[in-house]
Amino acid sequence: MNRTHTLITILLATSIFGFNYVAAKISSIKIDPVDTAMLRVAFAALPACLILRVERKEWAHVLLYGVAFSFGLFLFFKGLKTGADAGISSVIMQAGSLFTAVAGIIFFKEKWNQFNILGCAIAMLGIYSISKIQGGGINLAGIAFVLASAFSWTFANLAVRHSRTKRPVAFVAWGSLVSALLLAATHLIDGAPLAAVLEKIDQRAWLAIAFQGYITTLVGYGLWTLLLSRNQLVLSAPSYLLVPAFALLFSHIILNETITIQKVLFSCIVVIGVTINSCAHQVGAWINLRKKSTILSQ
Questions:
Q1: How far is 233 from 104, CA to CA, in rounded Å?
Q2: DSSP letters along 81-136, please?
Q3: Which of 2, 15, 148, 232 is 20 to 30 Å from the Cα of 81, by its Cα?
Q4: How many helices (H) and strands (E) would you count in the chain?
Q5: ∠ CA(6), CA(8), CA(11), 5° rounding?
Q6: Which class for 289: exposed (0-12), middle (13-18), buried (19 or more C-beta within 10 A)?
Q7: 0.90 exceeded by pTM
Q8: CA distance 168 to 220
Q9: Nearest CA to 162 among 106, 238, 216, 112?
Q10: CA distance linking residue 259 with residue 133, whole number of Å
Q11: pLDDT tens, 15-33?
């Protein structure tokens, strides 16, 4: 991907992901987390997987993606159901880029230096500080669920990165079908009749689920999958930093969520930490270049 295409992909994907937090919060108000996640991925899978196909060699990656995605979605909706704000949830989910970068270093031998450690430490300090804010849609249980969701999605990103798929939309659609089947099985084991669940869903919630299923999962994650499959995980991570800005803005406008100085300050700390981690390789290379130039000039 050239720079222009990469920039357009980043802006489209992150704005969709930002609004997705608002849609997720709306749909999680009346519906159980398992059912919300199941309906979302069902929308994403059908009818797309009836039209699109993935290569046979990608099926192992699709299965891993589907399993990780189902766990990630459930934990995310559980966090929102517990009471976490949509805007703050988007900040906590930034930990996913840290987990993904670490996974890239471990599994794909992507480079690591002291700035990665520094960035991770700063970001986690910001998340810890957010957890200490009293009220305002913030509670420890909600943050814990959202943080666990971010960790789960790391394995979905690993599946995408290792697959190097050339059909990102098809990959996401079939992965969503795997997620839908897993979540449907969970619902059958410990859930109310599906008809009773559907009766609770109003028009606003249906629109929110449809947005998550068709726009976020297919368009947003399709674009994100394309970005991941064409770039190193460490270099792709910075693109996700725009999501909290969009999410905080949309949640304030649509959900009337409050934006306090503490929230902005600690959110910026998280973003700064993620940015340092994401740019660690470039910073390290620049410092080494400066050292070499200094030695040569002496």
A1: 6
A2: HHT--HHHHHHHTTHHHHHHHHHHHHHH-----HHHHHHHHHHHHHHHHHHTS-SS
A3: 15
A4: 16, 0
A5: 110
A6: exposed
A7: no
A8: 11
A9: 106
A10: 12
A11: 998 999 999 999 988 788 9
